[in-house]
Every structure is written in structure tokens, then in C-alpha cells.
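Morning F.,

Quick status update on the modeling queue. The single chain you submitted on Monday has been processed. Sequence for confirmation:
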Amino acid sequence: MEKKIYIGCDTAGYGLKMQCIEYLESKDIPYVDCGCDNDPDIESTRYPFFAARVAGAVSKGEAECGILICGTGLGMSMMANKFPGVRAAMISSTYQAKMTRLHNDANILCMGGRTAGEWEAIDMLETFLNTPYDGGFHDGSLNLIKEAEEYMGNGKIWEKEPCKISTGALKDSEIFDRKK
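C-alpha cells below.
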């Protein structure tokens, strides 16, 4: 079964969500629309419901990745990051879209329907979808995130003293030398 991109929004993100869906359709990228709908009888919707639908699918491995849009993208990212294995990134530039995939292996893109223009948002989306994770040096940080997530899943607070963590063949003295 082909994994799809899950996309969701609240009322403030509806217009931008529809523009993102138009982009996905133009590229024949399969997606699942998790809401909200443009219902004239609804004054506003609460973003946690829609963030949970998308983040839940990513967390369970049902979705390749996700797109979440609220007024600023901030609330969506806060809710989505409560789910195990989710790395939701609220971005406001194409550079951030590139770097959050390249270095953080983000699996949910969060944007603001009131803060991003259509062309800018589509550029950020395209960059997010087409940038692969770089791995290597960055695996060490993702492993720490996973460790912290698992530890805190037991109701404890993860606190660890900063230390050098090797991510491969580098010696401890070389870890912070970004040229290697």
C-alpha cells in the first residue's frame, strides 16, 4: 500500500490548505485531507483535533509525512510534537524547510495560514517534500530525541548533561569539526 501525505488545518489555515492540495494534485502526489472543511456554520475550529489526525497517522507509520496549517503554524506544531516519533517543524522560509529536512528529518511541515503567502508557502512545501535527510552527524541528535521521548513516555523528565556523542567513524576530538 502506498503511503500518502496527510494534511490538516483549522479555520485559519483552510485557504492555504486548499492551495497545498492543489499543488499536491498537480504533482500527482497522493494525500489524505484530514479537515477542516469550509463550513459556513462553523465560526472557528480547534487545531488540536486536526493536528492529532495528521500526527497520529505519521506516528503510526500510516503517513509518509504530514502538513499542518493553522493561523501561525505554532499551535499545530506544539500539538503534533506530543506524538511519538513526530518531528513537526513550524517554518516560515524556504531555507528553514530545507534545513529541517536536511538536518532534523522533520516529518510534519507546519505553516501559518495568516503568515505565509501562497507562492512562498508552495515553495516551502516543495522544498520540504524534495529535500532528503542528510543523516551522518545529525543522527546523534535524532538518537537523543528518541531517547528522551522514550524516557519521558514513562512519566519522567529527561535531563542529561551535555556531552560529546560520536555519530560514526569520527574521534571524540573531531565531532565538533564540521569539515569532517
